[in-house]
Amino acid sequence: MAKTIIHTDRAPAAIGAYSQAVRAGNTIYLSGQIPLVPATMQVVEGGFAEQTRQVFENLKAVIEAAGGSFADVVKLNAYLTDLSNFATFNQIMGEYCHEPFPARAAVQVSALPKGVLVEVEGVVVLNA
């Protein structure tokens, strides 16, 4: 099966050896997004809520570049540096993802790139 690399200038450029997303068949594998502002490649100003919204805006841009929407997301993995932010994460995720919700894991990690507080990756299936 051929794979297609998904790229958009509306999301941060990769800061390592990876693509923003890869499409294989009808499945899109989204690389982890951290709260970088695409135009500046700097971490968005503010705290956890602002960072989480930026992450979801970045994911939205990549999903749309692949021809999908949050309704097509089947799985998200969230990495938080502090699980005390779990309720805030849930609330903001609910602004982007609606019932039926995708499958999800949310775990606490000791650190993330650039010292950010949250990173999210996912899987999208088009025409499911």
Can you give keywords for this protein?
60s Ribosomal Protein L30, Chain: A, two-stranded antiparallel ribbon, 128 residues, six-stranded mixed beta sheet, alpha+beta
- Broad CATH class: Alpha Beta
Q: What is the radius of gyration computed over CA atoms, rounded to a whole number of angstroms? A: 14 Å
Question: Strands of the largest sheet, in order across it?
Answer: 1-2-3-8-6-7
The ordered H/E elements are: EEEEEHEHEE
Shape: globular
Name the CATH superfamily assignment: RutC-like
Quote the average pLDDT. Answer: 98
Tally of extended strands?
8
Report the end-to-end length measured between terminal Cα atoms. 18 Å
Structural class designation: alpha+beta
Main sheet: strands, sense, barrel: 6 strands, mixed
What's the total helix number? 2
**Number of folding domains?**
1
List low-confidence stretches.
none
Strand fraction equals: 25-35%
Helix content: 10-25%
Protein name: RutC family protein in vnfA 5'region
Family: Belongs to the RutC family.
InterPro entries: RidA, RutC-like_sf, YjgF/YER057c/UK114
Pfam family, one: Ribonuc_L-PSP
Describe the fold and architecture:
The protein is an alpha+beta fold and 128 residues long. It has a single domain (1-123), classed as 60s Ribosomal Protein L30, Chain: A. The protein contains two helices and eight strands. The strands form two sheets. It has a six-stranded mixed sheet, with helices on one face. A hairpin with a 2-residue loop joins strand 2 and strand 3 (27-33). Helix 1 packs parallel to helix 2. The longest helix is centred in the middle third of the chain and has 18 residues, at 48-65. It is globular, with a radius of gyration of 14 Å. The two termini are 18 Å apart.
